[in-house]
Design goal:
This protein is about 35% helix and about 15% strand. Helix 10 links the parallel strand 8 and strand 9.
C-alpha cells in the first residue's frame, strides 16, 4: 500500500469588504455644472475636482465651488492613503498665483478651495506662493470667498504666518486620522504638530477647519478623543468621510462606516463643541465648503 501525501487546502486570502450601495454616485447634472464644465474644457483649466474623481463634483460645481491645487503635483511626503506622486519636486512657478487667479475669475467661481502638496524642501514651505495666490484671487474676484487647505508646515511657524495672511475666509488643515494611526497613515507627520498648527491658526483670529477619514481601523473612542483634542485646540469645522483605497498599493479599507454611524458622529461632534460638522460616506474636505464661510469665528 502506497502512502499518498496529504494535500493541505490553500488558505484563502481574506475577502476585502465589498463597497456598499450607499457609496454609489449619481452622474453630475444641472445648468450650473454644465456651464462650468464648458469653461473647464474650452480653456483647458485644471481642478482637483476632476483629477481626484471627486464624487461630489457635480454638486459642488453646481453650487459654484471648485478646488485648485498649487505648487505642483509631486509631494515630499509618502502618506499611505494618498495617490499623489512622491519624490523631489522640480516645479516652482512664481507666475502660478496669477494663472490660478485668472482661472477662478474666468470660471466665475463663487467659492474657491486652494490646496497643495507638501513642499518640505522649500525653506518657506511655499508660503509666499500661497499668500500671493489668495491676494491675486481677491483682487480679480473680490466677491469670491476662499478656503485654503494648507499642508503641515513641519513647525515652521513663520511660514504658517505668511500662508494664512492673504485674506482667506477659512483655513483648513486635515489631521486625516486619529492619533494612534499616525505612524501607519501619515508616517512623516505628527498628530500633536497638526494640532498645534490648528491652535496657532485659531490664535491668529481665523476660522479653522479640519478633516478625518473613517474606515482606517480607528475605534469610536479614538475618534471622540480626536474631536475633543480638536475642540481644545480651537477647531470650528470638521469634515468626516469614508476612506476609499485609491490603488492596491495603498492601505486597504478596514471598515465601511454606515450612514447612520456617520449621522451619530455628527451629533457627537456638535455635542463636544464643534460649531459645524459635515459627516457622511461621500464627504470630502471641500464638500459644502461654500457654507463654511458663514460659521461664526
Amino acid at each position: 500500500m502506497i502512502d499518498l501525501p496529504v494535500i493541505q487546502p490553500e488558505t484563502a486570502a481574506p475577502a476585502r469588504p465589498r463597497k456598499p450601495d450607499w457609496l454609489r454616485v449619481k452622474l453630475p447634472v444641472g445648468e450650473e455644472y454644465a456651464a462650468v464644465r464648458r469653461l473647464v474644457d474650452e480653456h483647458k483649466l485644471h481642478t482637483i475636482c476632476e483629477s481626484g474623481n471627486c464624487p461630489n463634483m457635480g454638486e459642488c460645481w453646481g453650487a459654484g465651488t471648485a478646488t485648485f491645487m498649487i505648487l505642483g503635483n509631486i509631494c515630499t511626503r509618502s502618506c499611505s492613503f494618498c495617490a499623489v506622486a512622491t519624490g523631489r519636486p522640480t516645479e516652482y512657478d512664481l507666475d502660478e498665483p496669477r494663472r490660478v487667479a485668472e482661472a477662478i475669475s474666468l470660471m466665475k467661481v463663487k467659492h474657491a478651495v486652494l490646496t497643495s502638496v507638501n513642499r518640505d524642501e522649500l525653506k518657506d514651505r511655499g508660503a509666499s506662493v500661497w499668500r500671493e495666490t489668495v491676494v491675486l484671487t481677491k483682487q480679480l474676484s473680490p466677491t469670491t470667498t476662499i478656503e485654503t487647505l494648507i499642508p503641515d508646515v513641519k513647525a515652521n511657524w513663520d511660514a504658517l504666518d505668511v500662508m494664512i495672511s492673504g485674506g482667506q475666509e477659512v483655513i483648513s488643515h486635515n489631521v486625516e486620522t486619529v492619533g494612534s494611526l499616525y505612524r501607519l497613515v501619515r508616517p512623516q507627520a505628527r498628530y500633536d504638530r497638526s494640532l498645534e498648527q490648528i491652535r496657532r491658526t485659531k490664535a491668529a483670529g481665523h476660522r479653522t477647519k479640519s478633516g478625518i477619514m473613517l474606515g482606517l481601523g480607528e475605534k469610536p473612542d479614538e475618534l471622540y478623543q480626536a474631536m475633543d483634542d480638536l475642540v481644545a485646540n480651537g477647531l470650528d469645522i470638521l469634515t468626516l468621510g469614508q476612506y476609499l483605497q485609491p490603488t492596491k498599493r495603498h492601505l486597504e479599507v478596514a471598515e465601511f462606516i454606515t450612514p447612520d454611524q456617520f449621522a451619530h458622529y455628527k451629533e457627537e461632534g456638535l455635542r463636544r463643541g464643534l460649531k459645524y460638522v459635515e459627516s457622511g460616506p461621500l464627504v470630502r474636505s471641500s464638500y459644502h465648503a461654500e457654507r463654511h464661510v458663514n460659521v461664526p469665528i
